[in-house]
Structure formats: structure tokens, C-alpha cells
Design a protein that fits this description.
Elements lengths: L15 H23 L6 H8 L3 H7 L3 H26 L5 H17 L2 H9 L6 H28 L8 H21 L12 H13 L2
Length: 214
């Protein structure tokens, strides 16, 4: 979820590299918000730079086009969501695997609820952004699946009879969670945070079924 970065006031408050980094951060935030508000096809570079309050030359100093900016915003936001999940699961590191699973799913849903623009842009509008973004989405899903695979190893340690899921089963479980979340996000009125709490139980149940082999 890209964070807004504001420049401090005063002469020479930031170096050239710091100004560039601040502008990049504002552009990533702006492209996320514009796509959420307008839809990916109707969002233009002009919309992005107007919201970010940067020049066109500043935009093209960091990004080749709208798709490049959107792709980089998606990567940054995806890393932040994965970090959030990792942190929440680490907080219950000594707990049984089912509790750790529940903590991870809750963090996944919280990430979307707390960043509505991120949710719309990267769960709904991303599908209109072309093959590059779809491939990038697949890579993110695979990273989530690898995290679930590590949890499956813990489950097997706690219960030697536990099912050892295949890569396709793990990706399928992650994809099911994404599909359920996307449906709720798509049906949420514009400007409102999605209410994803009711998805906690079914997503946990799907994951438990894959990890436990039930």
C-alpha cells in the first residue's frame, strides 16, 4: 500500500535524491488512487501527475508510462501486504499452526480493509492493466503460496499424519481467497472500505482443508 510522502518546507530541505524519492512516492500513491477512482483504462499520466503535484518530466524520470508506474505501485503494495502478514504471524510464532493460519488470513483481509484504493486498484482494476500486470499478480500469488507452504511444514511437524499439499493446491487456496476478496471489493460502494470480516471463516476453512487434507 504506497504511502503518501510530503516534502518539508524551506529552502534546500531535501537533497536532489530525496526530492526524487519523495516524488516517486507521491506518484505511486497517485496512480493507485486515480486508478481506484477512474478505472485503469480511463486513467492518464496527466491525471496521475496532477494528483501527485509533480511535473511531467519528473514522472518520466522515474517511469516509462502509466503501466510502469502502476506495476511498481502494485509491487510495493504487495510487499507491504506480505510484510504485514509476516509480522502478524510472527506475533503468534509459538502457537499451533491453525492459530498462525488465522492470524495470517486476518492480516490479509485487514490490509485491504485499511487501504480501499489499494483494494480496488490491485484486486479489481489490475485485471484490465494487461498481461504484464497479470503475470506480476501470478508471481505475488506464488509468494503467498510459498508462505502457506512453510505453514504446511509446521502443520506436518505438529501432526505427522497431516496432508502435504502440492504447489497447485497451495496456489488454488490462495487464488480462492483472492477471488472471494475481489467479489466483496468489487461490490463495495466507491470510497468506502470493503467489509471483509465475514470472509475470515470461509478462507480459513479452505486453507485448513488444504493443509490438513480434509
Amino acid at each position: 500500500m504506497p504511502n503518501r510522502v510530503d516534502l518539508p518546507r524551506g529552502r534546500a530541505a531535501l537533497s536532489g535524491s530525496e526530492v526524487a524519492a519523495s516524488q516517486q512516492g507521491r506518484i505511486l500513491q497517485a496512480v493507485t488512487e486515480e486508478v481506484a477512482a477512474r478505472g485503469y483504462p480511463l486513467t492518464s499520466v496527466q491525471h496521475v501527475i496532477s494528483r501527485a503535484r509533480v511535473s511531467r518530466s519528473a514522472f518520466y524520470a522515474s517511469f516509462t508510462d502509466k503501466q510502469d508506474a502502476f506495476a511498481q505501485a502494485h509491487l510495493q503494495a504487495s510487499r507491504q501486504l506480505l510484510d504485514l502478514i509476516h509480522t502478524r504471524v510472527a506475533e503468534v510464532a509459538g502457537a499451533p499452526w491453525r492459530e498462525r493460519l488465522r492470524a495470517g488470513v486476518r492480516a490479509y483481509l485487514d490490509g485491504f480493509e485499511n487501504a480501499p484504493a489499494y483494494a480496488v486498484s490491485f484486486m479489481v482494476e489490475l485485471r484490465a492493466a494487461g498481461p504484464l500486470l497479470l503475470d506480476q499478480r501470478d508471481q505475488v500469488l506464488e509468494r503467498h503460496a510459498r508462505n502457506l507452504a512453510r505453514l504446511a511444514e509446521h502443520a506436518a511437524t505438529e501432526d505427522p499424519a497431516a496432508h502435504r499439499p502440492s504447489d497447485l493446491e497451495l496456489i488454488g487456496a490462495i487464488g480462492a481467497a483472492d477471488e472471494l476478496a475481489t467479489r466483496v471489493i468489487r461490490d463495495t460502494p466507491p470510497g468506502q472500505p470493503p467489509e471483509l470480516g465475514p470472509l475470515l471463516a470461509p478462507i480459513v476453512a479452505i486453507h485448513e482443508a488444504v493443509l490438513a487434507g480434509s
